[in-house]
Amino acid sequence: MERWQNRVAVVTGASSGIGAALAKELVRAGVIVVGLARRVERVEALKEELPDELQSHLHAVKCDVGDEASVAEAFDWIEAELGGIDILVNNAGMLYSGQLLTMPLDQLQHVLQVNLMGVVYCTQRAFRSMQQRDVAGHVVLLNSLTGHHIIHPPSEALQTLNMYPVTKHGISALLEIMRQEMSGLKTQIKVTSISPGVTRTEILPGDYNILPMLQPEDIAAGIMYALGTPPHVQVHQLTIKPIGEPF
């Protein structure tokens, strides 16, 4: 991680789960971290879990990634105060548990807006910053096993993931689109997709609690591995599953 010392990493959805675990790991590795979240007070609270001398390296910025204006305001602040973005981790995501055929359309639209368009909003701004400053940056996309195939719910439970797999399949497509565009534009910017299996996070439907499970720190470790590879190495897709997962 030496190449990222004192560089700026933006982590979306940093208030809990994988985002919170990763924000702390990046700060401990010498990176300046901007944690974007709607619940910004939770990111502020993460500072208390860091050594005193590192707490100033974590910046909490309020942002709703599904709102283009909110994203623009957050990234404007980052560029004005910290100079630009070197790493972007698109971690923010959401899920309303229910059936696609019967649940409110505004909930389905919200999932689409946050999980897919939020990634586009943030990545456009981060890419612009990297390209303008000629930085060989890194964009990480938090994907899912459901971005590769539709998993059956455990036991006799109803399928409750609705739009979530749709958006994660979209992330799989964005990964390759971004890789081709970054290469075609002659940049040295990397893009990586991380696809966790069942992970203990706040959005996990309750029916899945009976399954073997990963912890947010397990996924953060995978992201740190991808970020720590040499400049000529690009981890395209990394899938992380718990032992015994039935999917």
From TrEMBL:
Q: Which Gene3D superfamilies match?
A: NAD(P)-binding Rossmann-like Domain
UniProt entry tagged with the keyword ATP-binding: no
The residues the entry assigns to the signal sequence are none
Q: Has keyword Oxidoreductase?
A: yes
Superkingdom:
Eukaryota
> Which keywords describe this protein according to UniProt?
Oxidoreductase
Q: Name one Pfam family in it.
A: adh_short
GO MF, one term, reads:
oxidoreductase activity, acting on the CH-OH group of donors, NAD or NADP as acceptor
What InterPro entries does the record tag this protein with? NAD(P)-bd_dom_sf, Sc_DH/Rdtase_CS, SDR_fam
Which family is it part of? Belongs to the short-chain dehydrogenases/reductases (SDR) family.
Protein name in UniProt: Farnesol dehydrogenase
Organism field: Drosophila hydei
Instruction: Please state the gene responsible for encoding this protein.
Output: LOC111598445
